[in-house]
Amino acid sequence: MEILLSRVFAGATSGSIYVLIALCLVIVFRSSSTINFAQGEFALFTTYVTWWLTEHGLNVWLAVLPAIVLGFVMGVVAERVLIRPVKKRDETAVLIVALALFTGLNGLDGWIWGSDDKVFPRMLPSGDDTYVTIAGARLHYDSIAIIAIMILVVVGLTQFFNRTSIGLQMRAVATNPTSAALCGVGVGRVLSLSWGLSAALSALAGALLIPMVPPGQLGLAGMFHVLIFAAAAALLGGLDSIKGAVVGGLSLGIGLALVNGYVGFLGGSMSLTVALVVIVVILVVRPTGLFGARRLERV
């Protein structure tokens, strides 16, 4: 029982990490019906900025604030300058631009800060004695903190989308931008805001997650695997569903932790393959995911 609980706790921690990045994908998709494949690189770039500020003497909690603002600006600029012009022509062009943005940001990271790994300061408590014991299994404080932050973000986004005017406008734009524009919704403003909000959240997520994701250092490949797992979680739950991102992320995190523990040959490097298989199966069997809304078009 103790071993099982330990693996469930580890899986819930990893799952919460996937949920945070999956929520960034959900924010963009709910307003623009676009999957932002560069989401992880937004997080990585702003995390490098946070690290650079800490190297110049700023506390990590203070350093992340300008990184969040920068993330918001980057998201807005990317949507206005790169995504919006090509989306008017073809959805495939948006995919190509997002992939180009992925490689471009990663290359920019290496050009500015170099390719060697950086030691990133932990924002959450950690140590050999920072844990509570539940039924003999250790649940560390940083795991508790990341799960609590994930819950707060989920509650905040749920209230934002369901109770605020701009949140409802985002849902309207995602459903039918033409009808939303005729009803007086500023479609361009809504799209820019969604990309900015998503990138800002990814800036916070990146700073929280990098020390917890193996190898625990800031490097150019630091967010790639997380993005794959987060995309699998978002697709599993439904790309337009906050609840789906939570269920998908936690299910994937706990499931992989149990697989790693009890089915060794599917663990380790095979975990990424498992996530990719999940993506393919969901796209083939149920493209809308477990909780995604089906979109109907009148003809």
Low-confidence stretches: none
The largest pleated sheet is described as: 2 strands, antiparallel
Net shape: globular
Oligomer: single chain
Order of helices and strands: HHHHEEHHHHHHH
Over all CA atoms, what is the radius of gyration? 19 Å
Mean pLDDT, as a whole number? 85
**Which sequence of strands runs across the widest sheet?**
1-2
User: SS-based structural class?
Assistant: mainly alpha
What's the β-strand tally? 2
Strand content: under 5%
How many angstroms separate the termini?
Answer: 56 Å
Structure description:
By secondary structure, the chain is an all-alpha fold. The chain has a domain of 209 residues. Helix content is 71%, strand content 3%. It has eleven helices and two strands; from the N terminus they run ααααββααααααα. Helix 1 packs across helix 9 and helix 2 crosses helix 8. The mean pLDDT is 85.
Q: What secondary-structure arrangement, pairings included, does this model have?
A:
Elements lengths: L1 H31 L6 H17 L4 H28 L3 H23 L17 E4 L2 E4 H23 L1 H11 L1 H6 L4 H23 L14 H14 L4 H21 L7 H16 L14
Antiparallel strand pairs: 1-2
Helix pairs in contact: 1-5, 1-6, 1-8, 1-9, 1-10, 2-3, 2-4, 2-8, 3-4, 3-8, 5-6, 6-8, 9-10, 9-11
Keywords:
299 residues, mainly alpha, two-stranded antiparallel sheet, 11 helices, globular
